[in-house]
């Protein structure tokens, strides 16, 4: 059962990897076929665009899981470190409210306001299959924002941005390397 929960906990990563691999392969196929055979598949570009859109929304959810969304953090340099996580959690509360409202609006659009005959140009399926990513990804993003805040506030885990670079650490490592060379 633990493998199941591991997959569920990393579902955005698996979806993004799969979508990226497929749409890159499809676009590569399209380039090869156009170049070598002077022919093109009309459906490849449209499907690749839809897959890229899905990739972006699930990638945003994955970034929320990693705590890697962009934030303005300059003002935190003037605050005590203990208060920062609570201020970020308060800001994330607005993010959660926005996401929940967006989930509501997107579900309302897909099931009530969308044209029943609106379909994709070349593939022919109803566009609600493309738009369904909106409530799914924003609901998942909401869950991930709450999960990150739970880990930070309740469990006390350090959820640093994986792309953040601490210049003091880099300088210390560079100084250490210089000492080793000397």
Helix segment tally:
7
Helix and strand string, N-terminal first?
A: HHHHHHH
What does the largest sheet look like?
Answer: none
Report the portion of residues in β strands. Answer: under 5%
Question: How far from one another are the termini?
Answer: 54 Å
Shape: extended
Percent helix: over 70%
Q: Which class of secondary structure composition applies to the elements?
A: mainly alpha
Radius of gyration: 22 Å
How many distinct beta strands? 0
What's the rounded overall pLDDT mean? 89
Overall structural domain count: 1
- Contiguous uncertain segments of 5+ residues: none
Subcellular location: Cell inner membrane
Protein name: TRAP transporter small permease protein
Transmembrane segments: 14-37, 49-68, 89-107, 127-146
Family: Belongs to the TRAP transporter small permease family.
């Amino acid at each position: 059962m633990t493998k199941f929960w591991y997959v569920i906990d990393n579902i955005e990563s698996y979806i993004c990897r799969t979508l990226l691999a497929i749409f890159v392969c499809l676009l590569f196929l399209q380039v090869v076929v156009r170049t070598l055979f002077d022919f093109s598949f009309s459906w490849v570009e449209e499907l690749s665009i839809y897959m890229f859109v899905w990739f972006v929304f699930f990638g945003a959810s994955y970034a929320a899981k990693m705590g890697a969304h962009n934030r303005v953090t300059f003002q935190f340099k003037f605050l005590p470190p203990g208060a920062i996580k609570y201020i970020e959690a308060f800001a994330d509360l607005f993010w959660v409210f926005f996401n929940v409202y967006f989930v509501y609006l997107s579900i309302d659009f897909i099931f009530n306001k969308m044209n029943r005959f609106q379909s994709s140009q070349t593939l022919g399926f109803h566009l609600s299959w493309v738009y369904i990513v909106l409530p799914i990804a924003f609901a998942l993003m909401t869950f991930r924002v709450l999960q990150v805040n739970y880990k930070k506030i309740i469990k006390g885990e350090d959820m640093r941005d994986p792309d953040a670079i601490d210049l003091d650490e880099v300088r210390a490592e560079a100084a250490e390397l210089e000492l080793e060379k000397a």
